[in-house]
Design goal:
By secondary structure, the chain is mainly α. It has one domain (about 1-125). The chain is built from four helices and no strands. The protein has helices spanning about 1-30, 35-65, 75-95, 105-125. The longest helix is centred in the middle third of the chain and has 32 residues, at about 35-65. The chain is globular. The structure holds protoporphyrin IX containing FE. Protoporphyrin IX containing FE binds near residues 10, 17, 83 and 121. The site of protoporphyrin IX containing FE (HEM) has 22 residues, from helix 1, helix 2, helix 3 and helix 4.
């Protein structure tokens, strides 16, 4: 039962993260082109995926912790950095919407976003920090 739930949530996590990244970029591009209605819809979809990823990710982490011999600290670290990625997505869209994303502020947030997203994906696929 718990394993089946884990399989379902894992599938949602694996499909969800790429959809979130696509929807995030779509929202940003729509906003940059002054398509505010399309932006609002994409932002709501992105928020839906934040919830899906957090719930499925946390469940997977607890599941792995219960079956693995050693605690999956790599995924725990990934979870924390993932929350940072979500915070950055929300901040980038929010600041862009309020016209506050320009110059060094824009570079500051985009750089953090790209780096943390790459780190999360690399840990997710066990390219780095593999236990
Ligand atoms: C922006 C948010 C997130 C992104 C982009 C993301 C991305 C990924 C990726 C690419 C994988 C590898 C998937 C695969 O093997 O096909 C993964 C797996 C995983 N993620 Fe996330 N994730 C996010 C949020 C979270 C959160 C909030 C947690 C909470 C702890 C989490 C925990 C996990 C765990 C435990 C796995 C390993 C699943 C397994 O292979 O058993 N993730 N994630």
């Amino acid at each position: 039962m718990l394993e089946t739930l884990n399989q379902i949530l894992l599938a949602m996590h694996r499909g969800g993260w790429i959809l979130l990244v696509i929807v995030f970029f779509a929202a940003y591009i729509l906003l940059a082109n002054d398509k505010h209605r399309g932006f609002s819809i994409s932002q709501q979809i992105a928020r839906f995926f934040y919830i899906v990823l957090i719930i499925s990710g946390v469940y997977n982490l607890f599941y792995l912790a219960s079956v693995a011999e050693i605690f999956p600290w790599n995924y725990a670290a990934k979870g924390i950095i993932s929350i940072w990625v979500i915070y950055l997505m929300e901040t980038i869209l929010g600041k862009k919407n309020r016209g506050e994303l320009a110059g060094s502020v824009r570079t500051y947030y985009w750089l953090q976003f790209i780096i943390s997203l790459v780190v999360v994906v690399l840990i997710g696929f066990e390219v780095i920090l593999a236990v």
